[in-house]
Write a structure and sequence with these properties.
Blueprint (H helix, E strand, L loop, with lengths): L2 H11 L2 H92 L12 H11 L1
Length: 131
């Protein structure tokens, strides 16, 4: 190929502007690569910041939910303790009644001569008083 052929092809591709573009491309190829790399990094950083922001919002929401659930659990534990206290009080009352029943069984008389009978629990007291 001769010089005329090259100039014809160059003229068909845009003439002087094509020469400028080729020269500019050759001279600035490293700079353009750095700009593209920096642009890609900026987009990645922006995406990461968006993800971090959404994760922070989710963490805040979950912390609020946890605080609400903790308060519910505390309330339920308080109610449970109240109910346990009521059960213990009833159990104590039942024990008192059971002791009274046992005392009544000891004082019970199954014979017709009940008026003469001294219940076993009072025998010791009478002996102490007589001495």
């Amino acid at each position: 190929m001769e010089l005329n052929d090259w100039l014809t092809i160059l003229g068909a591709l845009g003439g002087l502007e094509a020469i400028k573009w080729i020269a500019n491309f050759y001279v600035n190829r490293k700079t353009n690569a750095r700009k593209e790399y920096a642009s890609a990094n900026a987009v990645e950083i922006q995406n990461l910041l968006t993800i971090i922001d959404s994760l922070n919002k989710q963490i805040e929401r979950l912390e609020k939910d946890m605080v609400g659930r903790n308060s519910k659990v505390d309330f339920l534990y308080a109610e449970l303790r109240k109910e346990e206290e009521k059960v213990l009080e009833k159990l104590s009352e039942l024990h008192v009644v059971e002791l009274q029943l046992k005392e009544a069984e000891l004082s019970r008389c199954d014979l017709w001569e009940c008026l003469k009978r001294i219940p076993p629990k009072f025998e010791n007291r009478i002996k102490e008083v007589q001495q």
